[in-house]
Amino acid sequence: MDSLESGQESAGSMEEVTELVATAGLMFTLSTSIVSCLESKVADPKLLVPIPIFIILLLFLIVTLPISGGHMSPIITFIAALKGAITFARAAVYVLAQCVGSIIGFAVVKIVMGQEAAQRFSLGGCVVDATGSQGLSPEVALTLEFSCTFVFLFISITVAFDEKRCKELGLNLVCVMLAGVAAVVMFISIVITGEPGYAGVGLNPARCLGPAILHGGPLWNGHWVFWDEVEVLAAYR
After folding, report:
1. CB atoms near residue 149 (< 10 Å)
2. Which segment of the chain is annotated as a signal peptide (predicted)?
3. Which of 10, 17, 1 is nearest to 104 (CA)?
């Protein structure tokens, strides 16, 4: 009995460590890839952003989904808790791990990224209004965040939290669908606005929290917008 309990505790710890490490890695690779896209010499570099989002998220989902569920986002964790996939106690630990992972990932970004690039791209964080005169109003950003998160969650809940559907589609196709919808809603949010001071929807509060803590400045302008997913959760509940 003791060995069984020890094994369960070990498995639980592995899941939480996976969430922390995966979130840190995801934040680092996503932010540096997005900045690299924006630094490219193509006519409209923002249109390249969904490509690395899809590829990177797909790889991380394939690796982490069998271990921890591949959450890497408080919004997915809360949905999992509401659906009964994990307990609320474990969800709280997951969210803490994700937020710490985000801070670690962006701390590495801050170390390796040049100061001028870090300032210009706000460390690759979630920006609503970069200067106070460019970007979107918080109200418009909130509408976009709510709408895009709703679409993302609709696909996630319909596919990822339906055990029968998951088995029918297979792990790889489920990962492709989740990564694809994230890339699509990011593409929509960037293209539909066309505002230079807006960095697109966050979809992940942990992704927005890390750079806001480490970099501050414009990242706190309208930061509350990226935590509006609580409203989405209430709607799904």
Report:
1. 23
2. none
3. 17
- Would you give the distance in Å from CA 5 to the centre of its chain? 33
Domain extent at residue 158 = 2-236
pTM summary value: 0.86
Cα distances (Å, whole numbers) of residue 7 to 1, 11, 106, 122, 212: 10, 6, 33, 43, 38
For the stretch 37-85, pLDDT in tens is 888 888 878 888 899 999 999 999 999 999 999 999 998 998 888 888 8
Query: How many structural domains compose the chain?
Result: 1
Residue 38 C-alpha from the chain's centroid: 19
> CA nearest 208: which of 221, 197, 194, 189?
221
Number of Cβ within 10 Å of residue 59's Cβ equals 15
Q: What burial class does residue 3 get, using C-beta atoms within 10 Å of its C-beta: 0-12 exposed, 13-18 middle, 19+ buried?
A: exposed
Q: What angle do CA 53, 59, 61 make, to 5 degrees?
A: 95
Looking up residue 47, the CATH number of its domain turns out to be 1.20.1080.10
Listing DSSP states for 133-167 in one string gives SSS--HHHHHHHHHHHHHHHHHHHHHHTT-HHHHH
